[in-house]
Amino acid sequence: MFAPTIASLLLLSASATVRASSCVAFDASWNLLAFGLDGKDWFAGTQDTWSGSGQATDITATGRPAFDGTGTTCYLSQYTNAIYVLNGDSKNPSSLYIYDATAKSWSTQTVTLGSFDTTSFDAILDHDTNVFYALSQGNLFSLDMGLLKAANSTPVAWTSDEQSPYPSSYQPVMALAQNHIHFLNVPGVAAGSADIFVIHYSYFQPQSQAYPLPSGGAFPATYGQATSFFQASDVQQEFAFIPQDSSAVYVINVETNTTQQLAGPTIKDTNATYFASINSLVQLSSNGTVSFLPYQEGNTSVNAAASWSIVQSLASAAPPSTSSASASGTQTASGSSSTGASSGSTRGAPAGGVIQVGLVLTSLLGAMVYLL
């Protein structure tokens, strides 16, 4: 005699976890945008509205990517007020998706990859030229976006510009400031220092640049995430570096060649991603929690006392999952500095909600279960 109830239990016990891939960005008016969060896209407004009782606005529109790619990343083209999305769709990994933040519309730009590896790279979008620069498999690539705020019919192409001076094992940490690309965690480069590529001259500087803390300490030579603080209209002058252990936030100023240490994220998440505006550093954790650290350029005392908070308007609209990192409490900056040795890590995994999918098994499995 068959026992369908037992077979049913076996069928229901099998499940798989599918993780969506989200990203956050700002538009040119410093409104926070969250893409692919809980399967939708959201407009959260400016920083002064994040802690209220209101909810973010659903801006999900047709033509958007699926946000199911690996290592999805978003970039603000400040001059065009557009968001560029790389690796946004697993079925079209070579495509670049453009969100026109003014028209609130999506379009898909065809991209010619050449030898560019979409599965292994780090990239920045240069402020003045609107050109992507990416390090992939030891080579420096560029992708000229012109002034695109919507896709056109002519493909754009990744161009292999030159071989970098770094070994193929180097996992790049790239940051943009003053039209220079700063490479952190470079093998052989001391803690607190960065290698520099001068974009306008296509030139790797032969010497590293040091950015010491006031105490004489240094940010660690380790893998992590980096993102630039925007200016109202000019080129970026500062970038934030967050080591993978989330122990602190280091803000590097390339005008003064100094570093300030701020509070590390409350959520310690090795897969978190970050995006900065003119007055906020935002973290998107792998469970979909969006948090922020307020920031005032040049105001060291206010920044040192700042603490992380949840973007409540997004948490209300798209509640985080409970399957991974969760948020609780706040954390303020400490006066200590740190140094560290180089260590490698994988690129941040996709962030977003978790969907439980029951596996559908064949009737043959049920036929194997008998009640004796």
Write a structural description.
The protein has 372 residues and is mainly beta. It has a single domain, classed as Neuraminidase (6 Propeller). 7% of the residues lie in helices and 36% in strands. The chain has helices at residues 4-13, 300-305, 312-317, 363-367; strands at 15-19, 23-26, 32-37, 40-45, 57-58, 73-77, 82-86, 96-100, 105-109, 111-112, 122-125, 131-136, 139-144, 156-157, 159-163, 173-177, 180-184, 193-198, 203-204, 209-210, 224-229, 238-243, 248-253, 258-263, 273-276, 280-284, 290-294, 309-310, 354-358. The strands form eight sheets. Strands 16, 17, 18, 19 and 20 form a five-stranded antiparallel beta sheet that branches. It has a four-stranded antiparallel beta sheet with strand order 2-3-4-5. The longest helix has 10 residues, at 4-13. The chain is globular. Mean pLDDT is 85; it is low at 1-19 and 324-372.
Radius of gyration from the alpha-carbon trace, in angstroms: 22 Å
Largest sheet: 5 strands, antiparallel
Q: Quickly give the CATH architecture.
A: 6 Propeller
How many structurally independent domains?
1
CATH topology: Neuraminidase
Mean pLDDT: 85
Low-confidence stretches: 1-19, 324-372
What's the quaternary structure here? single chain
How many helices? The count is 4
Estimate the global geometry from the Cα principal axes: globular
- Structural class by SSE content: mainly beta
Number of strands: 29
CATH class placement: Mainly Beta
Write the layout of secondary structure elements.
Elements: H1 4-13, E1 15-19, E2 23-26, E3 32-37, E4 40-45, E5 57-58, E6 73-77, E7 82-86, E8 96-100, E9 105-109, E10 111-112, E11 122-125, E12 131-136, E13 139-144, E14 156-157, E15 159-163, E16 173-177, E17 180-184, E18 193-198, E19 203-204, E20 209-210, E21 224-229, E22 238-243, E23 248-253, E24 258-263, E25 273-276, E26 280-284, E27 290-294, H2 300-305, E28 309-310, H3 312-317, E29 354-358, H4 363-367
Parallel strand pairs: 10-14
Antiparallel strand pairs: 1-29, 2-3, 3-4, 4-5, 6-7, 7-8, 8-9, 11-12, 12-13, 13-15, 16-17, 17-18, 18-19, 18-20, 21-22, 22-23, 23-24, 25-26, 26-27, 27-28
